[in-house]
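Researcher: Here's the sequence for the chain we discussed earlier.
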Amino acid sequence: MKPVRLAFLTMLFAAYAACQPALAQSSAKGPALMIAIDGAIGPATVRYVKDGLAVAAERGAEVVILRLNTPGGLVTSMREIIADMLVSPVPVIGFVAPSGAHAASAGTYILYATHIAAMAPGTNLGAATPVEIGGFSPGLPEPSKEKKDGSSDPAPADTMATKATNDAVAFIRSLAELRGRNADWAEEAVRKASSLSASAALEAHVIDLVARDPAELLEKIDGRKVEVSGKEQVLATKGLRIELLRPGWFIRLLSVITDPNIALILMLVGVYGLIFEFSAPGMVAPGTIGAICLLLGLYALNLLPIDYAGLALILLGLSLLAVEAFTPTFAVGLGGIIAFLLGVAMLFKAEGPGFELSWTVIDIVAALVFALTLLIGRYVWSVRKRPARVGAQAMFGTQARVLDWSGAAGHVLAQGERWRAHGAESFTPGEIVEVDSVQGLVLNVRHAPVSAASGGEAR
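Model: Thanks. This is the structure I predict for it:
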């Protein structure tokens, strides 16, 4: 019995020793965290990616899958995301998915910066030409100015376009050289706005592989070597659990308010909310809502690449329209509308997909502001034309109810208050009289007209 028991214990120990490396390896593996970028790339995307990479480092994730489906976005936001990825201690796998998705413009730069670039079938990337404000593309420069001798100098817009293009080319080529990808096509994507499908990108050595879904992606990159923070790392991704990191409430709020049109409307609501509060103190709601909206709008504009001269013109225009509402002159209101529209046109230094100002929204906002100004101005003007009715003048013609009367004096109830009253006639308690004049704190009253007297008691 003892030899049999000893043999059984030996076999059990050998099995445990054989399973120990696999158990140690599986326990050492972290999850594969996925960050999904859907839509335009802006300040909210920067915060989302930065937080996601920080969570991946804290949890010891094996890799981060950056799933891309974007038309592009702001250059400043794109550069911030790439800077965060380059210093990330966790390998970042770029994956253009699902089928039908694309990584255009800024998305192409981000894909080039990832440690491993992959695409799903039926996706595309490219069209990385930077878009400047004014609607022209650096790849399509404006005509040059011709001199008298027949030679020509580049137009100012052409010079700026060339600078922007050369800077973008240098940036994407540096990313291609860092990751060992096709730098020539990268330059072509910037200069000629070229695009590639998933299979064509794989053949051109723009991406590293094609995968149908994240699970297949992890299987295909298992065992690959990548350089992370200057050190070579072998990926062990087969069978990893995939967790999607969802943006928090603040990032979702940020994605809404950093829309230039929303930011402009928030600022407008904020300014007019404060104007209404100052014009009628004690309403509370307009002032509270206005202050919140104004701060949110200014915070959003601070995150966007804006021209502060344009912002100053917008605020000046709104101020002039507020002045026009309370002191109608028309000239001030017209100046406010012009300053507002000029400020909007100058507000953004650069635009990207998903971050353009809608002129339809601007026209509607300008029309509503002007209509509101006219409405308030008309009301204020009609009030100014009325005779002043304050103090004793406000009491003239007011109806009162006699409380008691003796001889030529007594007491009446007028506008909810008890007054001393004099009259040349005799009145009975309960009778409705009319105030003829006021002398100090004494009302001179007379018989009210028959129609007024039958109308009910005075308040």
